[in-house]
Design goal:
single chain, alpha+beta, 5-stranded mixed sheet
Length: 170
Amino acid sequence: MIDDINYEYRTGIGTDIHRLVGGRPLKLGGILIPYEKGLLAHSDGDVALHAMIDAILGATGLGDIGMIFPDTDPQFANIDSKELVLKTKEYIEHKNWEIVNVDITITLEEPKLGQYKAQMKRCIASLLGIDFLNVNVKAKTNEGLGEVGQGLAISAITAVLIRRRLKRTL
């Protein structure tokens, strides 16, 4: 008998949006962004990490962020979304999944994120235990359209590629 190691690959997409409000810190991609408003949410509201969690869970077929971390559960009130990412990573690793790469688009009118994208990439790569080059963070505006375009909210969409090692006995 010969053991042949193959991989099963899957992709996932996740989205999130939260309203901007005064009196809260703004966290995006796992880092604190200096700004006069933050995102209204049960947790810290980091839409980039929330969309990433949904993409990971979607790719694995293991549900979504609301199923795993319900906003009705007091233990997740004001939780740092980096902790949710670590819990998600641990959860999927128990099912033999690993993250290959992540591509995140954050849509907002302001603040401008150009100077923070590399820091976000480093944070996300560190959380996921993957190479910095396997994480991409983009920032876009909504050209004045909708709640995001009016500066009332920030949204994110994420695509991920995951893989699982399969052993076949021939």
